[in-house]
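Annotators were shown the component list below and the corresponding predicted structure, then asked to write short factual statements about the assembly.
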Amino acid sequence: MKTFLKKTLLPAALLVGTVLSVPAIAAEDAINVTNLSYRTGPFAATGTPLMNGQRDYMLMLNERDGGVNGVKLNYDECETGYNTEKGAECYEKTKATSIVTQPWSTGITLQVLPKSNVDKVPILAPGYGFSPMTDGKVFQWAFNPPATYWDGASMILKAISDGNVENLKGKKIVLLHLDAPYGKEPIPLIQAYADKYGFTFLPIPVGVKEMQNQSAQWLQIRRERPDFVLMWGWGAMNVGAVTEAVKTKFPMDKFVGIWWSGHDGDMKSVGEAGKGYRSLSWSLPDSNSQVMQDIKKYVVDAGKSQIGEGEFDWVFYQRGVLISMFTVEGIKAAQEHFGTKVVNPEQLRWGLENLKLDEAKLASIGMSGMIGPFSTACNNHAGHAGAWMMQWDGGKFAKVSDLLSADQDMIAPLVEAEAKKYAEANAPWPVNEECK
Amino acid sequence: MEFLNSILVKPFSDMFAAPDFLIQVLWEGLVAGVLYALIALGFVLIYKSSRIFNFAQGIMVVFAALTLVGLHEKGVPALLAVPMTLGVMFLLAVAIERVVLRPLVNQPDIILFMATIGITLFLVGFGELIFGGENKVMITEQLHIPTGSFEFEPFGGFVSIEQKDVTAVIGAVLLVGGLILFLNRSKMGRAIRALGDDHQAALSVGISLSTIWVLVWFIAGVIALATGIVWGARAGVSFALEVIAFKALPVLMLGGLESVLGAIVGGIAIGVLEKLFEIYWGQPLLGGNTETWFAFVFALIVLLFRPQGLFGERIIERV
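Structure shown to annotators:
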């Protein structure tokens, strides 16, 4: 028996081990980027085009350029169904292999945030997550470019007041929001605005089980007669809200959503009836841009994409492309700074903290005009890029404003206070003292 | 004193001050209630015949609605897509009986319940694979469901009633009426009830367990399709429809798991009461979103006095 083990099984095991180790060596020239995705469950309608856009950008770079400076990008997904518990499991499963964590939910972001200092894997939450994460001195490992929810709330208030928030004095503003950490995120900032500028602010929550039957919420809106309704909706909640707004005959031009409430796929359900609805967006779709044409050529036409009919032109699909660009540009910055090809999570953290996406850079990567220019720094992990107001014309979203910017004088004190509160509540919390 | 006034006086004075608004609230509650009843019926039917709590009822709603819309997208005319979808739901019922239920005959209830969780997970993955996760538009107009609204001005106010909601209520009433007739007057219906009363006795008189299981799962599929059309017409067809099934749980607690009448009365009661509570007490006093818990609390209070639910059977077991 011993002879059998020595002569047969041992060499076989060694052979298998050798064969299996070959991809491991080859994998040295690749970087793993795992997304905590949600293509199933109640929020899949929002998640699917975003994930498709992220995936296709990385596939395109692999096909067109052989990756990033010769290093292939291994894009992978761990399905969370937008469920915080599953998200936390996915984080634990992928933190050792992925160069970055993209939680794709404010709830999951808050769950993994305290672990980031220990695990030393950067958290990338583009346009979502906990707004004070922009304070890189406190949240060294968390990034929420190109803008926070508080930036978004500030820009929306500026837009509905025709550029002067003082015009809102005496008005009534409702925030229709998902009853989840994401939906509650803008409340402190809008309340601060209401206190300062003298308008009435009324948050109306929508539970996950009520997303598709918001009659109670819209009856309340009918009773309250607000001047504006702002929406922090996600997934099916957006469709439910716009449908009820149409039914309630609420004036569509007084109804404005944040960037996750401006999805073509959602608005298709209401079509012409939703005409006039506005949504803030930090990304502008441009199917004729160089990057989108390359994706079409190398991924879509090659049959490697998973997108559905018409999805290529959608705001969310092309936003997914931009989101993957943040990671890629972070990798490039780190490669250049550290003089290495296969960067590690710590080096990527530096890269994400030193993004320089000016007009020239955006033009060089074929994304001119698709996003406002911004740069990050150790004390600014969001970049605070601007955003545009988009309006549904019955068939698609169209840009109806110039690039808006948030009022940082209003936001900064709140960021500092909330970041400090978070650090104290989670003490001992390491702070980057070198960052001024 | 002010607190008592806000609970006991103000809500009622608000109702009298704006009776048109009260009518609108009651109508919205009634529509929601009828739809809850419809979902609860799917659970009741399967539980009645097989003692299985069908966790997959929610995903069946999604699957049926996605099949209907998917077939239409492939060029099948809407009115032909409906019977074809029913055919798919029948095949699903047969597959569930053959692959899942038959091998688990005589297993404890919890095993069968777990099997329905398995069916749910399978249908989530399978549905996503075939139809994708994107939100789809229900083919309301193609199915000739009216989409306008009736508008009234009672008491000098304003009430708007969506024609598709009226259609949903009428459709649900017809479906439930037909179901009650089928269960009480047809041979197969009586067989389902017999099986629900006593498996062994029903088998001993020649009732085929597998035929009845296929039948009830198919009827649950028909109800799922009706539910999917109605809810999909309100807010699109996506996997989010699955969570609506959870609204049926307090209805089942209230009405009793075995009672068709309980599902109907429980659904309507919960729909109307949760809407009234949310508008007149929840929003002014508790910040709103009470609909997520009100029905459960209400059902629990009822259970304190009637543990078997309003119309459930009192089970007496010898020990």
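Statements collected:
1. Residues 2-305 of chain B form a domain with the ABC transporter involved in vitamin B12 uptake, BtuC fold (CATH 1.10.3470).
2. The longest strand of chain B covers residues 149-152.
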